[in-house]
Amino acid sequence: MGFNIGLSGLRAATSDLNVTGNNIANAGTAGFKQSRAEFADVYAASVLGSGSNPQGSGVLLGDVSQLFNQGNINYTQNSLDLAINGNGFFQTSNNGEISYTRAGYFGTDRDGYMVNNFGYRLQGYTVDANGNLQNGVVDDLRIQTASQQPQATSSITQVFNLNSTNVRPGNAGTSAAPTFDPSDPLTYNSSTSLNIYDSQGNSHVMTQYFVKDDATAVSGGQNTWVMHVLIDGLNPLDPQDAANTPMSFNVAFDTSGQLSTITDTVGGTAGTGYSIDPLTNEITFLSDTTGAAGDGWIPATVDTTGASPTGFVWNGALGSTDNITFDPRGTTQNASAFSVSSVSQNGFTTGQLSGLEIDDTGVIFARYTNGQSTVQGQVILASFANMQGLTPVGKTAWVQSFASGEPVIGTPRTGTLGALQSGALEDSNVELSDQLVNLIVAQRNYQANAKTIETESAITQTIINLR
């Protein structure tokens, strides 16, 4: 019996040495979780029991469990490296074979899929053809590296203040004001510009000129302005119009300086190429559909052939198919300098992919050279009721087992799942000083059990030598 007890001790010490050695070997492996050898004593059983003072029969390896405590976060220079700070595992797919890992070595393959250093594809919520995140649809995450197609401007929002102390240009006491001339700043009080885009991503400058109209003959008097609109310094409806006739609107304010009404210069709410919503004061600039004068805004370019008398022709592109809505709500007339407090428009030109960002909730943003950013997907995490039940399969990965239970899928920072850190990796959670001490203890245990066998051998030899 002594030989068996000593032999079981040797086996246990060998297992302990193997587990400790594996921990030490993986002290520098990102996402590695240290293991612990767990032993149990053995007692022989008999039909009538062994009484209250049984003799032990040795030791056995009860289990090799893994400790899933957090490793240190180590920052890298790769924005696609990911670390989990808290609970959860990355879910990866190798041709449909699902595994789970804490090692966040990620990059892209030649097809744009996010893969780890073994080529396994990272799983997450993907986006549809319109760039909308599809929550609940888990698939391979893919980075769209193609150029971003241009988008024609369909919405402009602008809030500005007109100086109520301004007077009409020219002689304010007469019934006539100087003829508006965009090249002569003495014919208007203030102006502002912004870029808008056509269907091919060409940039155009939309300029608004504001003229105070305080003639006593005009209804509203001191609270009425005229807003002239030119695009690229041209008539928006006909770039070959020699007079460069602007679209013009009456902008009226109430006595508190709040925007009251916007009408065209003859008092209506509709004209050639535009319409006005009388409830919201939003102006809709129609988009040309044929390139013929009068249908709506005609994107223009310089005539290089010299055939056009004014030097500008249709550039072959169109405006947004949804037309262009100009929203000036919030505009005021107060006794302060002219200023534009906010302006935005939703058009942009063609863009090249310039970088990627992943936030702590796993949302992947792609940045483009045109200043735009789009969502490319969202990384998911998986958690298990019994992490100890996961089966390690190497390559710093685990697979689901019956003991682990089903994975619970979610996005970072939801429920019990941790947060993501982009540009970082989680270090191994092995504490080398502890493992080196364990190595010494396992070595002593091995030596002691070997001594048990040696002693048993000596006793047996004594019995054999009896005469």
From TrEMBL:
Cellular component aspect of the GO annotation: bacterial-type flagellum basal body; bacterial-type flagellum hook; cytosol
Residues in Flagellar hook protein FlgE D2 domain copies: 161-348
InterPro entries found in the cross-reference section: Falgellar_hook_FlgE_sf, Flag_bb_rod_N, Flagellar_FlgE/F/G, Flg_bb/hook_C_dom, FlgE/F/G-like, FlgE_D2, LlgE_F_G-like_D1
Flagellar basal body rod protein N-terminal domain: residues covered: 4-33
Presence of the UniProt keyword tRNA processing in the record: no
Keyword list, A-Z: Bacterial flagellum, Cell projection, Cilium, Flagellum
Function, in words: A flexible structure which links the flagellar filament to the drive apparatus in the basal body.
NCBIfam families tied to this protein: FlgEFG_subfam, PRK05682.1-1
Protein's name according to its UniProt entry: Flagellar hook protein FlgE
Organism: Aquipseudomonas campi
